[in-house]
Amino acid sequence: MASAAHILAVGDLHGHYGLLRKVCGEVLPAQPAGTRLVFLGDYIDRGPDSRLILEALMACQAQRPETVLLMGNHERMLLDAMRGHRTELFLANGGWETLRSFGLTLETLHQLPEPYLEFLRSLPLYHETEDYIFVHAGLKPGLPLASQQERDLLWIRDEFIYSRWDFGKTVVFGHTPFAQPLEQPGLIGIDTGAGFGLRLTCLKLPEKEFITVT
Q: Is residue 115 scored above 50 in pLDDT?
């Protein structure tokens, strides 16, 4: 289990490469040495730059192996669509933009280059430290972390957000957009609508300081 140390958690990017550039070029250099980046998933769809974002994240992880890149439900939708499953769901949630960024169509989606496919398949579902659990969508109340199901980790919303279940650690999540970061006992939500042209929120830990990127 990783130590909390200094962490910068980054909310859902959704194909907006300019926001990622600001995180890596402006926000991260201002953080303490050794700060670990934790990205909460949903790197693709909606914005125009999904391919650029995946390339940048792969390069970031190669240069900074301690970087944590979690899977989001949009990455799962892309992987499912490549197997011919739930393609309409993928397309209806920004998949067309991702296809365009790769110069692909639905019919040629199977030609997605192997390095991207390997990267997407390798993304973990959560990351745990001494004080925090980082996950894309949330956790199902009443279940220990080891018993959580992928669908809940990637898709859950109200059942998690409005429960008062004590998971033993603060859960940091994205997936559900809020006008302002959500902070309540045991939960911190940092999706502030970057995928819809709004703000990207980063969370600096252990200070619990919110950093806004536009």
A: yes
What's the pLDDT tens digit per position in 128-141?
999 999 999 999 99
d(CA 168, CA 88): 38
Structure tokens at 139: 């956790």
Number of alpha carbons in the 13 Å side-chain half-sphere of residue 156: 21
**Nearest one of 48, 46, 120, 47 to 81, comparing CA atoms:** 120
Burial class of residue 121 in the structure, from the number of CB atoms within 10 Å of its CB (0-12 exposed, 13-18 middle, 19+ buried): exposed
Burial class (CB in 10 A: 0-12, 13-18, 19+), 188: buried
Question: 163: Cβ–Cβ under 8 A, 6 or more apart, which residues?
Answer: 141
Helix (H) or strand (E) holding 134: strand 132-135
- This prediction's pTM: 0.96
Q: The domain at 7-72+124-213 falls in which architecture?
A: 4-Layer Sandwich (3.60)
Length of the chain: 214
Contact partners, residue 103, CB within 8 Å, separation at least 6: none
| Residue 176 to residues 40, 102, 132, 163, 198, Cα–Cα distance (Å) | 12, 26, 18, 15, 13
The rounded distance, in Å, linking the Cα atoms of 169 and 102 is: 39
